[in-house]
Structure formats: C-alpha cells, structure tokens
Amino acid sequence: MLLNDRPNLAYLVYYALIFILTSTRRFVKIFKVAMKPIEKQRIIPAFKQYDLEGPKPRVNEFLFALQIFIQFIKGFRTLHFVGPSITVFGSARFDENHQYYKMAREIGKKIAELGFTTMTGGGPGIMEAANRGAFENGGASIGCNIKLPFEQAPNPYTQTSITFNYFFIRKVLLVKYSYAFIIMPGGFGTQDEFFETLTLAQTKVINDFPIVVMGKEYYKPFHHWMDHMIAEGTIAAEDRKFMLFTDSVDEAMEHIRKYVKKNYKVKPRKRLWWLFEKN
Description:
The structure is a single chain. With 279 residues, the protein is α/β, with parallel strands linked by helices. The chain is built from eight helices and seven strands. It has helices spanning 2-34, 58-79, 99-114, 126-136, 167-176, 188-202, 220-232, 249-263; strands at 85-89, 117-120, 141-146, 160-164, 178-183, 211-214, 243-246. The longest helix has 33 residues, at 2-34. The termini are far apart.
C-alpha cells in the first residue's frame, strides 16, 4: 500500500512546488508594478483583461484578489492626504474648442477657488479640462487613470496621477474622497459613473453629497426617462432631489458650497511617521 502511495506523494510534492513557484513569481511581478513610483507612470501601457473572463485556476483567482487588494492599498495611501475633493465626470472625446471642454475648464478653476481638490479620471476631454482649470489656477489636481487594451497617456494637468487595472477600483476611489460630484456630458462610461453615484445616494450609502448635472439640453432626454420610471414605479418622484441640473458654473459651485458648509467640517489629516507618510 505504501509503495503504491509513493507516486501519488511525488505528484503532490511536484504540483505543490509548481504552485509555490508560480504564485511567488506572479506576486513579485504584481507587487513591482503596483508599487512603481507614481511620477514615472507617464505612459499607461496596454492592458488586456484576463481575470474577468470566467473561472480561472485557483492560483490565478488568488492572485487576482491579491492584485485588487494591493491596488486598493496603493490608492488609499496615495489619496489619503489630497484634501477634500470634488469629482468631475465627463467624456474623453471633446477637444479644447468644444463648449463643454471650456465649461469643464471653468469648473476646475472655480473648484480651485473654493479650496477643493479637483479629481477626475485623468484622461483627455472633460477630464483634462477640469484638471487644467484647477492646475492653471493654483489648485490641487488629481487623476485616477485606468488601463485599457491600448496604450495611452494621462493628461498633463495633474500633480498626482495614479493608474488602476480595473474600473471598479477607480470608481470606488473617485467616490470615496469627494464631497460633491459634477456630471458633464459623456457616453457610456460617464453614464455608468453617474448612475452608480445616483444609486449610492438613493440607497443612502452616501448622504448629503451634492450631484450637479451640467448641460440641460444634453440631459433633456434623461428627464423624460425619469418621468417614465416614476410613472412605472421603478423610482420615486423624490429621487429627483439628489440632482441639480444647470448650465451655470456659478450656480453649480454655490450649490456645492452651501451643501458642504451646512453638512461638513473639513479637518486636516495627521500624517503618521511610522507608516512612512511624508509631508
């Protein structure tokens, strides 16, 4: 019986060694990429999603979870001291001559004047415009980028730029550090961020955080859709209160200022030397 068990034991040892070696090599690779200094990541390499394509070997699933954990920790450490932020969502496809680009640039400027940090997805278009407005007017400007299946570059108007592999990590951090949200015109990505933020407000996961929707004409069909959802009973009429629709940058900023002043007192966070948190 013992003789028959020896080959099985050898196979177990062999596969255990393969598992350990594979895990160690992938962990080191993931850790090096995740902890690479932020300022050096000026070109965002192409990244093909693999882990979201159904079940994978258990070692891959474990390393996928580990990679998510590392990226969250990196995000927390990077953004912990950025100060109170306002997140601006919007399309990456508008150039600097477009009216919505100009509007977003003015919004970034006004956010800087309020003393808040401008946070965006770090890409071109509306994101670049908001970062640019803040950057050019002495305000703090943050970009939370995402790796896509093609190479790209973050916009140049940020003091801090951090890149994630997965949209859900980026969305958590864009919400976590913000006291208000400004929704500019945009496509599927913008609507995804808009609706997720709305859902968090509707379900009271986030409370008393203003959501300002810029572009009355662009979002006019959304009003009709809300009327339809109210008529069908899928949302309540009072759910409209979560949003302010406007074309006025000044009205938007005054709405945000009142909300924040009424509901929050912003205090600076203390840096802990034993966590290597530098000034």
